[in-house]
Write a structure and sequence with these properties.
This is Carotenoid 9,10(9',10')-cleavage dioxygenase 1-like. GO terms for molecular function: carotenoid dioxygenase activity; metal ion binding. It comes from Nicotiana tabacum (Common tobacco). The two termini are 31 Å apart. The protein has a 5-stranded antiparallel β-sheet with strand order 2-8-7-4-36, with no helix packed on it. The chain contains 7 helices and 36 strands. Helices cover 13% and strands 36% of the residues. It has 579 residues and is mainly beta.
């Protein structure tokens, strides 16, 4: 689901609320009535109902929602100002302010980033007799921010244009037409309120939550797609950012779709997966290199809905993460969280042949932890090597405590601190396919870091370098758990060294980044021949920019800093699309 894309920022604090006894009785009645269905989730099949009855029912339910629920704006702290939404600018705008120089061998193309940009001025909460529930920042509608690089052939001068546009999912268009919020918040809040939101959203709209499409953007077979994993992707016209429609692989895929599909080395096939809090909990698919058909699809027979955000690939295998951060609507009937991390639950990594089934997965038990993002996976003789960003405990805020940057020294010395269990390290697992042995270690210790990227030519292959965003713990603490990234890190992986060597490119104080990605040189020969580009925002000047950092001279000043014509809110994943 889409909220796992940035769950480091999610307020998933659920409490049993103090509510009047009549509401408790109503809650009990709802629970009793729905308990048989709850085992299979509150599911809303599409049935053939006469249009007049359907419209009348919708109006009655809408009237009930208007009467029983009050939508209220969620105020932002001053430290959260760049999480506020922006308006679409309309047409692409010429960018004229560039400090430094865009390199001559930088490729022509589009640097594009997805992110949350809520409709109607910001996020909403609802109040009702059932309690309070709130939309969280990752539930904002998706907006694409794009910087276009074109080079004049004769003179060799660069021209850059900036544009932004909402991704027009079906639910985006529905709420725009209504001119007011429609979906009740169904992730954070009091359990009865969330449960009733699930039911009313399903009865009114045929789905429990909005289609967000706010997490990532990817390319397959020269087509471009926006995605959040609570729905299928939307095809995007990369030149105009217009939404062209849903991509369901000619009807072969009808469930959520991972925000991080992976191209299989060699074949160019796209490996995907989808999770859902109703059986089948986890399905895996392989899409043909031309994007026209599903060549393989299988249910892996999970017994829980693990909040799995990313899938890995190697030359021969798919790599599956099954960790004890789970989604379970049955917990709502007990007044417990919809999303919960079980620190005593099992954690395992599965390795399966590309076209395998549930019986072909070789599972490796690993230390219980929480993982959202993979750095890379590859084969090394009998071992499958998995590198990922790992926290020892839940990465859900309010189940954690951000402290200031002074805590870093105590973490480096392996002393106990309240932030250490939630500190995100880069971890490496070596899974021996012959013996079943697992070797596990941290590859970093200095800073908490997330949102890893590599040179995409090395996805599924042995690689030496990874690039990540460095968490500013102090700034994140002031922003009440909305993470801010004050720099970039370049990791050098070497087999004979316990820890990866790390270089840092830190931004000026009060400047934070999002959507970093690696741009390879067209004629590059080394893995790190290229640049890391990222959107940044200076909170003191309220100016947004794009930094272009030479990957080979990582710690030096950026080679180009491009000032954008409007503010770009913090967001999620970015990509560079050569044209």
């Amino acid at each position: 689901m889409a909220f796992c894309s940035y769950t480091f920022q999610v307020n998933c604090s659920f409490q049993r609320p103090s509510v009047p006894s009549k509401v408790q009785d109503l809650r009990g009645s709802i629970s009793s009535a729905l308990n048989p269905i709850s085992r299979e989730l509150v599911h809303f099949p599409i049935v053939n109902i006469p249009k007049a009855i359907k419209e009348t029912s919708f109006k009655l339910l809408d009237a009930f929602v208007d009467l029983a629920f009050e939508f209220v704006d969620q105020p932002l702290l001053p430290s959260q100002s760049n999480f506020a939404p922006v308006e679409e600018i309309g047409e692409a705008v010429l960018v004229t302010t560039v400090e430094g120089k865009i390199p001559d061998d930088f490729p022509e193309g589009v640097y594009i980033r997805n992110g949350s940009n809520p409709l109607f001025g910001g996020l909403k909460s609802t109040k009702s007799i059932f309690g309070k529930s709130s939309h969280v920042w990752i539930e904002g509608e998706g907006m694409l921010h794009a910087l276009y690089f074109t080079r004049e052939k004769i003179r060799g001068t660069w021209t850059t244009f900036y544009n932004n546009k909402h991704v027009q999912t079906d639910t985006f268009k529905m709420e725009k037409d209504r001119k007011k919020p429609g979906f009740l918040p169904a992730i954070e809040g009091d359990s009865p309120a969330i449960l009733v939101a699930y039911i009313l959203n399903g009865l009114r709209f045929g789905m429990e939550n909005k289609h967000l499409s706010n997490t990532n953007i990817f390319e397959h077979s020269k087509k471009y797609y926006s995605i959040a994993e609570n729905h299928m992707p939307q095809e995007i016209d990369i030149s105009s950012l217009e939404t062209l429609g849903n991509w369901n692989i000619n009807g072969a895929w009808d469930r959520p779709f991972t925000s991080h599909p992976k191209k299989a080395p060699g074949s160019g096939e796209l490996v995907i997966m989808g999770i859902y809090p109703r059986k089948p909990y986890f399905e895996l698919g392989v899409i043909s290199a031309d994007g026209k058909k599903m060549v393989h699809k299988v249910d892996l027979n999970f017994n829980r809905c693990s909040l799995c955000h990313e899938i890995g690939v190697t030359q021969k295998y798919n790599v599956i993460m099954d960790f004890p951060l789970t989604i379970d609507i049955n917990r709502l009937f007990r007044g417990d969280p919809l999303i919960k991390y079980d620190k005593d639950g099992y954690a395992r990594i599965g390795v399966m042949p590309r076209y395998g089934d549930a019986n072909s997965v070789k599972w490796f038990e690993v230390q219980t932890c929480c993982v959202l993002h993979l750095v890379n996976c590859f084969e090394d003789n009998d071992e499958v090597v998995v590198r990922a960003c790992r926290a020892r405990e839940s990465v859900l805020p309010r189940q954690q405590s951000f402290k200031g940057s002074k805590e870093i020294s105590s973490i480096e010395n392996n002393n106990e601190s309240s932030v250490e269990p939630f500190f995100v390290h880069v971890c490496e697992w070596r899974l021996n396919m012959r013996t079943g042995e697992v070797k596990e270690k941290n590859a970093t210790t200095e800073f908490s870091m997330e949102f890893p990227v590599i040179n995409e030519k090395f996805v599924g292959l042995r690689n030496r370098f990874g690039y990540l965003q460095v968490v500013d713990l102090e700034a994140s603490s002031i922003s009440e758990g909305l993470a801010k990234y004050g720099g970039l890190a370049k990791l050098h992986f070497k087999e004979d060294e316990e820890l990866a060597k790390v270089e840092y490119h830190m931004f000026p104080k009060g400047t934070f980044c999002s959507g970093a990605t690696f741009v390879p040189k067209t004629q590059g020969t080394d893995e790190d021949d290229g640049w890391v580009v990222t959107f940044t925002h200076n909170e003191s000047t309220n100016v947004s920019q794009v930094y272009v950092v030479d990957a080979k001279n990582f710690a030096t000043q950026s080679v180009a800093t491009i000032t954008l014509p409007s503010r770009v809110p913090y967001g999620f994943h970015g990509a560079f699309m050569p044209l």
